[in-house]
Amino acid sequence: MDEAKAQTQEQDLAVSPQDDSKSETSTIRYEHEPFELFQHKATTLAAAKFHRDRADIHVERMKGGAYNRVIGLKVRAIKPKSWGISWAQKYLRACFRRLRPETYEEYVVRIPRCEDGDIDRQVATLKAIGARLALPIPDVVSFDISADNVLGKPYMVQRRIPGRLFTHMMEGLNLEQMKSATKRITELVSEISSVTAAPGAIFLDNLTSSSGPVRTDKFSVPCGDTITATSQQPLAHPLEQCETWREFQKANSFCFEDTWDSFIAISKALEQRGFLKGPCVLVHGDLREYNLLAEVRSSTQVEITGVIDWDEAFFAPQFVAYCSPFWLWISEDAPSDHLDDEKNALEEPESIADRVVKQVFLENASAEYRRFAFAPEAMLARRMYYILRKGIFGDWSFREAEAIISEWDELHPEDDVAAVEYESDFDGVDSDTDSEHTGAGDEGDVDIDT
Q1: Less Cβ crowding at N or C end of the chain, within 10 Å?
Q2: Acidic residues compositional bias: what residue ranges (predicted)?
Q3: Of 371, 403, 369, 410, residue with least CA distance to 384
Q4: If you average pLDDT over each of 141-155, 215-229, 387-401, which comes out highest?
Q5: Interhelix angle for 257-272 vs 236-251, to 10°?
Q6: Are 206 and 215 in contact (CB under 8 A)?
Q7: From edge to edge, which strands make up the β-sheet containing 292-296?
Q8: Nearest in space to 386 (alpha carbons), one of 229, 235, 192, 241
Q9: How does DSSP assign 355-398, residue by residue?
Q10: What is the pLDDT of residue 282?
Q11: What confidence score (pLDDT) does residue 67 get?
Q12: Which residues are within 8 A (CB) of 375 and not within 5 positions of it... i.e. 6 or more apart?
């Protein structure tokens, strides 16, 4: 399973514009206006928001993702009054640097592709995280959760973060630069997980509050009530999730009793072995190379300039956050499924360079991080927790749950967690739902015309 692929490597803040090929994928699939027409609405919106003339706005086509259409904006900075001291100083500096006096502020506009896009929750997440982490994350300067605007859709305007997507840089980095990037990426996980809160999704109240604890909602079932999350004992949270899904299934005339019983047994086994302890921490949800922006500073240094795509951020037990960045030391020639299966973190890297990169991780990760990263129990627990959050909808998630139980039983037969074998029966359950979560039908970058 790879939740990252489920998000189809969305590049909401990519710094390079879309190429000149005019694909109609976005227009056809989502019934969007073509960019040639939509850009005029974006110009009108930007001119009003930034109090500029339309001539001061440049709209740029950018690559979007499965969930958001993305448009770049360049807004001409307000010029100082002509012949003033400030103008003269700026003009002289520009002449010396052989630059034009004009400067531009850069932004991106994100528009949900679907009508049910939750812009308000996305903004609440960024505001909650931005107020508590000293990390370069998207800064929201304007948003509208309604369609009562010139775009006719909800939208969010963010400051554009400098840098290139790390996924586009990796091949060209030398070993010292890879070591530098690996050290920083390892540190990012510890910094992100320093924020604690009750387990759940980030609550909408964070739109207006940036002080005190982050408020969260309990993970809910489809069409269920929103319930404010409260602090729980470490074991109580996964047990509650099992019972929540059990009640939901019974209410819908089906229930995988044995699955939830097995997950309860696994949760108790995790607690006994010390994997359920401490507070619940912030989890990015998809901290991979395509959600990191970076810049090369020197022949030995790479700086991470941005951490993007926080749409899946949530609070969970620590073992969920401490997944290793194994993709840093997996060979480029490895099969595609190796690049997304964290069990391959246990294998010895093939090349000397990859072994060096893995060693950098080991030297910079805490003992706790290393344990959670490489323990087979923690890897299985992360897979189980995905289902505890998302539920069982369709054949993929059912088979995944079976596999988790079977693999735990093989690892620790003494725990006796294995469920009784039975055939899946999804009467009344939409089996297509799984593709939304697992990315079973989406491999690699999405090439969607914005």
Answers
A1: N
A2: 422-433
A3: 403
A4: 387-401
A5: 180
A6: yes
A7: 164-165, 292-296, 302-307
A8: 241
A9: HHHHHHHHHHS-HHHHHHHH-HHHHHHHHHHHHHHH---SHHHH
A10: 97
A11: 76
A12: 275
Rounded to 10 degrees, the C-alpha dihedral 233/238/240/241 comes to 150
Question: Contact, 340 vs 5, CB < 8 A?
Answer: yes
Structure tokens at 153: 């859709």
For 204, the 3-state DSSP assignment is helix
pLDDT-based confidence at 275, cuts 50/70/90? Answer: very high
∠110-116-122 over CA atoms, to 5°? 45
Token pair in block for residue 238: 């996964």
CA-based nearest residue to 221, from 7, 383, 387, 380: 387
Mean pLDDT, rounded, of the chain = 83
Number of helices (H) and strands (E), helices first, in the chain? 14, 12
Span between the terminal Cα atoms of the chain, in Å: 28
Structure tokens of 313?
Answer: 């951020």
Quote the CA–CA distance of 362 and 140 in Å, as a whole number. 35
Say if residue 175 is exposed, middle or buried (CB neighbours under 10 Å; 0-12, 13-18, 19+).
Answer: middle
Compute the distance between CA of residue 160 and CA of residue 140 in angstroms, rounded to an integer.
Answer: 10
CA distance linking residue 429 with residue 435, whole number of Å: 13
Q: What does the alpha-carbon distance between residue 114 and residue 339 come to, in Å, rounded to a whole number?
A: 29
Distance set, CA 202 to CA 6, 122, 229 (Å): 20, 9, 10
Q: What's the pLDDT score for residue 69? A: 87
